[in-house]
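Troubleshooting: if your tokenizer reports a length mismatch, compare your output against this known-good record of 306 residues.
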Amino acid sequence: MFLLNRNRAAVLIGAALFNFQALANVPAPVAGKVFDATYEPVAAIGEDQAQVVYYRTLGGVQRKGAAHVYVDREFHAGLLPGGHTSFCVAPGTHTLGAYLDDMPTYKGKHSDLYQATLQGGKTYYLRVREDGNTFPLPVARDAAEAELTTSRTQVHAVSRAASVEACRHYDYLVDESRFKHYELASDVLFAFGKAGSGDISKAGHQAIARLINDLHDDDAQVKSVQVIGHTDPIGDEAKNQQLGQQRADTLRQLLINKGIPESIISASSAGNREPVVFSCYGSRAQQIACYAPNRRVVVKVELGRP
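Known-good structure output:
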């Protein structure tokens, strides 16, 4: 429960730590880069942390410039329209707010304070208000993720919030029974180096048709669909990242055209960062053939609970 608490002192609740699967750090800024990957549903966290997804929509934007997000009175991120940030804190009382008129001398970030008691193991979705109100707007998960479908991770600023922690995602919290995984070989879907809908082969259209039929069979249960493009390491890394995104975008649009709701489908690129085959040698043709398993589009379908 998201509780308003203006007077209580911050209470930090510790919890015993378990062996964890991965350490997901707050994204580091990248020179010349404002946004990173498209939003993907965040994983569950343990009782020792509370998780926050703070975002700003593109629709209904009334003011230009970034909304500066502060956590416990310290700067965390500058959200532009269509951007989001995900982070974790220790359970307890925290001060949160987003300021559209933030300047070094702006007093609002020190006086217009909103305190919330965040519970361990919970994820909170907070939207920036565009009317000048600095308090976050709590949004239910389903509604928030519908708005976050095309949102991208904000990465152009360094977090200075000392209470923000790397999120710890534990093995025992991952319920893989809720997911179906489909892997489509890019060499079946597209000609080498291509990504457009006109570049899809006959075999590629057949593979997509089978996927769509399966999704329609599960229609009543499908909660979200993630489309992730993967490439091989041949060539420029930035171009590979772009190619993976273009292929994911193409498949996403085809799924939408076939009746899968746009609001539940996201598309992103892993580029060449998640290889299946690591080292190939020989001529270019031999390397292309060897790296073929890396060229793929993965579709991850989350099913709702019966």
